[in-house]
Amino acid sequence: MSMLAKMPGQHSGTIIAVLVALLSLCPVSAQAAKKGDFVIQAASADEVDGVYYLNATIDYELNDIALEALARGVSLTFELRIDVRRVQRWRPDKSIADLLQLYELRYHALSERYVVLNLNSGEQQTFLTLAAALLYLGDIRELPVIDRALLNPKRDYVFRIRSVLDIRSFPGPLRVLDVFFGDWRLTSDWYRWRLPR
Fold first, then answer.
1. Taking a C-beta distance cutoff of 8 angstroms, is the pair 191, 75 a contact?
2. pTM value surpassing 0.90
3. What is the spatial distance between Cα 111 and Cα 7, in angstroms, rounded to a whole number?
4. Residues 6 or more apart from 12 whose CB is under 8 A from it?
5. How many C-beta atoms surround the C-beta of residue 185 within 10 A?
6. Treating both helix axes as pointing N-terminal to C-terminal, what angle do 8-23 and 64-71 enclose, rounded to 10 degrees?
7. CA 49 – CA 17 distance, rounded (Å)
């Protein structure tokens, strides 16, 4: 949870300042949206002791609006959506597992450090630069996804992952950004691969 959300009374002025600053970007919102990009470069699910673990590499580039919000104390929530589906010949694939991994990125102005918090496990890491923090966020290693016993060895399965910057976690007044910048939210395409039998 961000400091803004914890102490809304103390930070209402900060929220208004952030909102005004971000709304001032309106004339260049289309350009700002084009600058950011989430790209999944590679992903695989490796079986170890009967459990499939996700390994993935994601390139995160934030746009001007997200950078402005971060610099002004707003925490950014990154969603990693993981979907395991059973392939069906004549019907849509059936979802077997649907997982959500959440990470929070925030900037501490006093210490001039970037903090990445794994909201699922509570693990926290601190970085000197935004580039280092984004590199860490994009390096997914050995994340457990599903037990092999839950999959039928005679059927085909597909893994899919996608990463999204979620603005629903913003303090209430900042959600108005969605009205002005409906297309600024950053999301990768689904990255899809079939599990070998």
1. no
2. no
3. 19
4. none
5. 18
6. 150
7. 52
Q: What is the token pair recorded at 174?
A: 């900042």
DSSP H or E stretch at residue 116: strand 113-118
* Residue 122 backbone class (left: φ over 0; alpha: ψ -120 to 50; beta: rest): left
Instruction: Kindly report, residue by residue over 54-63, the tens digit of the pLDDT.
Output: 999 999 999 8
Structure-block tokens of residue 111: 């210490």
Please report, for residues 7, 15, 37, 129, 148, the alpha-carbon distance to residue 34 in angstroms, rounded to integers and kept in the order given. 33, 25, 7, 23, 40
Using DSSP, state whether 20 is helix, strand or coil.
helix
pLDDT confidence tier of residue 193, bands split at 50, 70 and 90:
very high
Burial of 54 (0-12, 13-18, 19+ CB in 10 A): buried
